[in-house]
């Protein structure tokens, strides 16, 4: 352990007896979509290689099914035949040549599979899938065990350092473990001894088949966060039995995919569940891996130093920055591109069957396609606007060797990020701003703040001009729009006084954000205890699944969140985070109304019509969150100008703009110039 580093525990090797891991950082399993087709394995190898080169100790692949019934998707990722082994060898070699270790995750989706062949412990459909599972017969169970063993042996043949058996998040083995999904009356169901028979049998049989010098990690659900889940006593018994059966590592799983409790989105306090891993660690001899919302070396180091875990799992943070470990080791933690737990480009893509990437790092899983090659001829490049699109373009252009000047009319960089960071539960945006500030400095970008550029001003001075001036809020044509009680969302997020009864016109991402802002009691992240209470989480897991009645909210304001479209507001929010925002507002009594026709605003309030009924919301303020329009001032007008003018982000198209598109557009353009 080196005393010179601020992260001595994080960077300390871990000796498993037959193999030594170079540090305590595990890149947790994350399905990118590249796993599903063997012809994408070149891209997958490049993705893993970059993370191994960046110093990660142990990489765990996305999930691979051991048989067809275990597929996540029809023809989805699997390892079932020796014909697939050469492709997998590309992955193992890519990682091991960089000094890393890699485990194949064996994932049987059980009733979470999105296809008609799904099986489970009992024939009970999951609330989040379309297909009813077939109950596995005794013979089916034995064949499933054999499939897991075959998969592990194939992984060994492909050069993996071991396997991780996915037993959490509500997948098949979790389905066998919990009474919620296991209502069998044979030797695979009933009491805990029977319910855990399948996972234990799988571990024992794999151990026998692969020998002692092959890592077996088991990802166990420590807190199911669903009704009919297990209690702490059950978890403890299962973990000890797994240890006896021959595992080398125990990884922490928190919550099922169908849980109605958030476990990884940005509003979950950092390391919120580490205490549960710590409790298990005291019960076991094998190393325990902590996971969920660990996104900085400081948090990881603290958990390890406090003895909460032996290793830390970070999946998304390593999408965001493949050099996370290297930068921490070099004392450059401030240049880490921190994962903001938004899920917008990773999990939201994975659940929509699109290739996962990262909002703050669009190269993630596109390493062979989005390359930042050194420019052959360095150019003088002006970037106008230091919002997400402009920052991204400026950094990539400078990284490639261009001489970049970045103009910003405001007194700080960040554009819309400066608003996002004020929204409760979105404090992680501070990290993105810190990253960009450090990066501009490292790369020698000439940053000119408080500098508004007029049309034609830069003509002839630069080889390329990138216009990233962003958006302006949409103005509405509505009688009374000029009334004193009407505010724009920018005014509100910048601190304008707001009354106790408020109607918000527009229920997109910003409407939801402004509502959360108006409900918040304080600046800064929600304290862990309060957050646990709001969502009804019992970290002691003394009740089945660790669920208790949520605390009642005492909202400080009465809010109405409105949209013209029929249906419940919030349907267009992120797939894996939208439900959290909706549940948060409902918990605070916010009225979410669709199908609204706005009539006028006056001293009485907001007059509107819903279902043909006219009514007046007697509100103190009406906040307009009705989307944006591009800022067109600097758009090129002459064809000649066009050649060297590039318009990106919201300035190009405000519709469906988000930071993901802005950052990607900036990076893609700068990679081409
Ligand atoms: P948005 O998502 O396009 O929502 C605009 C809202 O305004 C809609 O509810 C729309 O609903 C309403 N609206 C549009 N034109 C209107 C008009 N003329 N009169 C009255 N209402 C009107 O835009 P946004 O909320 O400003 O968000 C901008 C971008 O940032 C979006 O891409 C969003 O996804 C992203 N963002 C995401 C998050 C997140 O949590 N993931 C958070 C913040 C922002 P109706 O047309 O039905 O009335
Ligand atoms: Fe993290 Fe968001 Fe990137 Fe996913 S998309 S890795 S949550 S920053």
TrEMBL record:
SUPFAM superfamilies: FAD/NAD(P)-binding domain, FMN-linked oxidoreductases, Nucleotide-binding domain. Keywords: Flavoprotein, FMN, Iron, Iron-sulfur, Metal-binding, Oxidoreductase. It holds the Pfam family Pyr_redox_2. Residues 380-634 form the FAD/NAD(P)-binding domain. Residues 10-333 form the NADH:flavin oxidoreductase/NADH oxidase N-terminal domain. Coiled coil: none annotated. InterPro entries: Aldolase_TIM (IPR013785), FAD/NAD-bd_sf (IPR036188), FAD/NAD-binding_dom (IPR023753), NADH:flavin_oxidoreductase (IPR051793), OxRdtase_FMN_N (IPR001155). Its cofactor is [4Fe-4S] cluster; FMN. PANTHER family: 2,4-DIENOYL-COA REDUCTASE (PTHR42917), 2,4-DIENOYL-COA REDUCTASE [(2E)-ENOYL-COA-PRODUCING] (PTHR42917:SF2). In the N-terminal section; belongs to the NADH:flavin oxidoreductase/NADH oxidase family. This is NADPH-dependent 2,4-dienoyl-CoA reductase. The lineage of its organism: Bacteria, Pseudomonadati, Pseudomonadota, Gammaproteobacteria, Pseudomonadales.
